[in-house]
Amino acid sequence: MYYLILKDLLIQKKIIALSIAYVIFFIIAMQGTGFVMYATAITALTYMLVMTSCAYDEKNRSDLMLNSLPLKRTSIVIAKYISIFVYVVMGTIAYVLTTTVIYLTGLPIKYSPVSLEGFIGGLLSICIINCIYLPCFFKFGYQKSRILNFLLFFSFFFGITSVVNYLFVNREAAWAQGIKSYFQTYTDGQILILVIGLIICMLTASLILSIKIYKNKDL
Known about the structure:
This protein has about 220 residues and is mainly α.
């Protein structure tokens, strides 16, 4: 399984090398959004790497090669899901390096440091978008899933920006205060446990579905 993850990293080495450039773009594009900046940057970067690895797999007919080796199809699927977290770590390192350079050089760019809220929010977004995409990839392949790729990516990117702006503008509205009051009845620890539980449930359901699809797939 280690070599499957390494394969995905090696075929994307040029894109990974440009990860800081992508992070800079999202920092500039998400000025003034607080912890959402990190969450958006890490989600977009992770999803892009997942999609690229899937595209290379289909282009190079990796399915045929991998299934000719003594590998279980379950291991191939699990490796894709583990790769998500490898990309999260890499993206976080790129984000920290970028914001550190901005701080040390005094560039007039507003940025938000990595926080627990941003990390959990980013992880939740990453899981939602990839838990939808990966089963579709294993079922239909990369080319047939391109429309879904487009819809997921731009719905997420523009959707989260619109939601944040809308909530900020209407933060004094009665319904917004009601939502705020509801969540204030829970401690930070309880909310954290709830979100982590939701992430685990989504990943488990998506992984089981992907394994079932891939096991029954004719190559």
